[in-house]
Amino acid sequence: MDEDLERILIGEKEIKKRVKELGESISKDYQGKELVLVGILRGAIIFLADLAREINVPMKVDFMAVSSYGSSTKTSGVVRILKDLDDDIRGKDVLIVEDIVDTGLTLKYLLKNLKSRKPASLKVCSLLKKENKQQISLDIDYCGFKVPDNFIVGYGLDWDEKYRNLSCIYVLKPELYNED
Hints:
Layout: E1 5-10, H1 12-29, E2 35-41, H2 45-54, E3 59-67, E4 80-83, E5 93-101, H3 105-115, E6 121-130, E7 142-147, E8 152-153, E9 169-172
Parallel strand pairs: 2-3, 2-5, 5-6, 6-7
Antiparallel strand pairs: 1-9, 3-4, 8-9
Helix pairs in contact: 1-2
């Protein structure tokens, strides 16, 4: 496995510290409210689990699974809902929890879709945001780290469904995924 990884981008201690800070900020902002965390499967599951333990307001958790990549490493721009929410979010304070914002196309679709369901509020928390990659200008209300445009894995992020279980975030060696 190590032979596939170029270097550590963000270490475990740094991730834990930042997740704690995000949880504190979210808790402060949602004081006196009940929050619905909407985890975007599969990548956000580890981040969502750690973040939820750092949030100190009443909350519910629900999940969506969407696809815009298929088997490619580049987004197709076409978003499909593979698993929808189980519960109605009308009138609720909703926080989308994402692993990474890349082009912004998937998140734009999700925001439009969820806004149509009439939540009381709708915000976004993303562990990572790729710098200089967004095709669409989107506000990320809570952002863990801005990262360079490398293919990264670990802490929920995968390549071909591998490496999600790593406790750090790594840069994957480019020769593994280059499609040129």
